[in-house]
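ligand=adenosine-5'-diphosphate
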Amino acid sequence: AGSTGPGTPADPLEPGAVGHGTPLLTVRGLHKSFGDNHVLRGIDLDVRRGQVTALIGPSGSGKTTLLRSLNGLAVPDAGTIVAEGVPGRRLALDFSRKVTDREKFALRDLSAMVFQQHNLFPHRTVLQNVVEGPVQVQRERRADAVERALVLLDRVGLAGKRDAYPHELSGGQQQRVGIVRALALRPELLLFDEPTSALDPELVGEVLTVMKELADEGWTMVVVTHELQFARAVADEVLFLDEGVVVERGDPARMFLEPAQERTRQFLRRLL
Ligand code: ADP
């Protein structure tokens, strides 16, 4: 891990540097329904520090719902999530009983999400978008937040765009700002929900490059993606979901070459 990439593992929380490989989130038996639609049907997932997990699978298989469950945006009906945050801040959420808002917010605070659409505030500049969370939510001093934001923007090649508005940027630039905005929150975990699927093909590469740099720096990441080449190159573990269950999981090099399950094979054949 160098100091030149877009991440900030030298920050006080040292997201990737502390306890590489130790459990950050332990998810067991997660279930979620929307009405009659049983979307997650008993999901187990281990997110370890410094590792990249890719969630792949057909549309509607529950990938986004699982991702959103990891930060409290979706609330499962049953199952547990144990989060080993910074020492002394262990969280254990059992969704089969009532989970309090306080617990949900504590879970949410561990992570930052990069969405499919960048979700930037349209009437605020790039810099204002990036410092909003640290200043308004985390009560960081504005001057400090601005200083950190400029370092992060510089690292993704966008320092010159600090005063631009989102509509003045390309889709790839917008998405890189979206990533910087997540990094500025100094989360322990970065969640990506198909961050390149809304981009024109020629803009996908610049976003994936930033994500690969973050992975190399030791950020812990969970990525919903259709970019199998990216998953193969970057992910430590891939989970193939179908109809709300993890059909197969493992090392992408092995799984993409020799899927153990017929359903995985069929899915991969369509994409590779
Ligand atoms: P994926 O990310 O694999 O495409 P999703 O988790 O987005 O899958 O969706 C899984 C299923 O859950 C879909 O049938 C979708 O329509 C449904 N779903 C997702 N979010 C909601 C919601 N907020 N309300 C109702 N149904 C939802």
